[in-house]
Amino acid sequence: MKTIAGIPASYGVAIGPAFIFERVEMIIEPCNIQDPEAELKRYAEARETTQGQLDEAYAKAKEELGVEAAEIFSAQKLMLEDPELLSTVKSRVESDLINVETALFETAESYAQQLEAIDDEYLSARALDIRDVSFRCLRNLLGLVDSPAEGLNTPSIIVSHDLTPSDTVLLNKEYVLGFCTAEGGSTSHTAILARGLGIPAVVGAGQEIEEINTGDDLVIDGDAGKIIIDPDKKALKDFKARQVKFLKVQAEAEAISHEPAITTDGHQVEVVANIGNVDGIQPALDAGAEGVGLLRSEFLYLERKSLPTEEEQYQSYKTIADAFGDKPVILRSLDVGGDKDIPYINMPPETNPFLGVRAIRLCLTRPELFKPQLRAALRAGYGNNLKLMFPMVATVEDVKQVKLVLEECKKELRAEGHEVAEKMDIGIMIEIPSAAIMADQLAEVVDFFSIGTNDLSQYTMAADRTNAHVAPLASGFQPAVFRLIKTVIDAAHAKGKWVGLCGEMAGELLAIPILLGLGLDEFSMNPPAIPFAKRLIRSISFEHAQHVAEVALNLVGDQEIRDYIQEAVPEVNRE
Amino acid sequence: MPEISVTIKHEVGLHARPASMFVKTAAKFTSDVEVTHGEVTANAKSILAILTLGAHKNAEIIIKAEGDDAKEVLKALKELVLDNFGEHE
User: Fold this and answer.
1) Which contacts (CB < 8 Å, 24+ apart) does range A344-350 have?
2) What are the pLDDT digits (tens) for A416-439?
3) Model-level pTM greater than 0.80?
4) Interface pTM (ipTM) of the complex?
5) Taking CA atoms, which of A24, A85, A223, A307 is between 20 and 30 Å from A93?
6) Are both A282 and A415 inside the same structural domain?
């Protein structure tokens, strides 16, 4: 038995024989030719064969994954017949008298390298497409049968160096139990496809997977990101039990993902999504999100060289808010500083950035940063349910200052003749202990709270969550943090205001019974966690959760709380 | 040689689906069509050349055409861009 660690890319456990998916190495040898016309005729025929294969891939992708995913192959067809590419290949064959394979390979490679050189994730991915399609055409030219999947006639775990878009689409999914690749990250083609199909996957496992041979017994653990080669009897038995349980729980969770989150005794809460930009809309809706509890606006500011304009922000916020119709979308104003730096904003270095000028503190001193965002939000919120939320509020005075700027923006916009959201709910993040302690006063000046447990924990425990030596203190189930959460919820409810939670804790199944019992109104999490959270909430009673919360808050530490929840609420187990 | 100047408003810029649509539209006409973004000029009928322009959202591009249907192709491309590549909010 041997275990290889990789990156978890898609949930679940797969058990089965390995199938090594590698293609025959293609050797392109430059050689001189006599008859350019015959050479170009071969090229035309190879392109025609390739067209047919791409049509097949398009139809298959459309059926399995939808029109959008299939677009890749439509773009590859355009690349195959690209007039610039064709004329370069043609002129090289005619004037240099070289074989068409060499001309095509070198021309396509030069385009791929140009695309890779542009600092843009999307364009770099297109480099993979031009290679995918030109290699396909080259194999047709060389008469190589493209059948790395030949022999895949029994359900197997696909093991490969890396997979191209057409590889993943053209595989017969009936025989695919799971994927593991040496290369790739959690946003690679293989990872996205595996999640889309609900097949477990581990990617980026490194060269060690080359030791695996077709037919070896394998287990992949898509939760932990592990590949186990030749598991012993005990491990196999454990994984089989986990797999059975997981599949059952997953099916149950997916079946109810679009149902409301109501406990067995009729207490309803909201389950919403954390997203970063317009790309997050569809996954959130598909997962059953009842809105967006945290729209991280800083994503709009990252990976660029200057501030996004008001218009750009407006378009983006409006697209997202409109996509959710009358469901709430909570936009968090720019949260930078701490461990999140944006070079073009020129934040002066600080000895202690987590305790320095970050988030709202920065925005209040930089109107040129803050006002375009507020103006964009006020305009985008017209005709939908967009709400605004401010991070790193420490005092009531902070809220008053923010409201002054907001009023100023409203006045300006009206004077300019813009349509503005008349009544937009304003909330704050509770992540500084002072805000939790003073929640009763803050509840009078805002419409809602959203608890940011990642920061609230690190500030409460005085433990930097980016410092591995103390991070467990900051990411744990600390009774002190749960007690602060209780203070916040009680104070808000006393003033008729609601409370959400958008830290990682909201999606942690072990934490949900406690938070539910404390009276939390809204749980905001990454979309894949939503079905599981809803299933858990729908399977327990509010009365039991209240009891569990009361007991947990009187335990002494992290491990005691986890052990207690495991025992008191067996429904938290996903496997 | 007639030319027009337009600004790309689409969220993803002249990439992905908008780039494919742009190229497909240009290819329907017989005229030679060029697109300039900054200092780089590309054949409007070549998806690879268009992608390497790296024209993001809000990029201003100049389109030139020469041939029998030059006016028509410019009109069609202008409409496509102004229509936000058929996507409306």
Assistant:
1) A344/A304, A344/A305, A344/A306, A344/A307, A345/A301, A345/A307, A345/A369
2) 999 999 889 999 999 999 999 999
3) no
4) 0.89
5) A24
6) yes
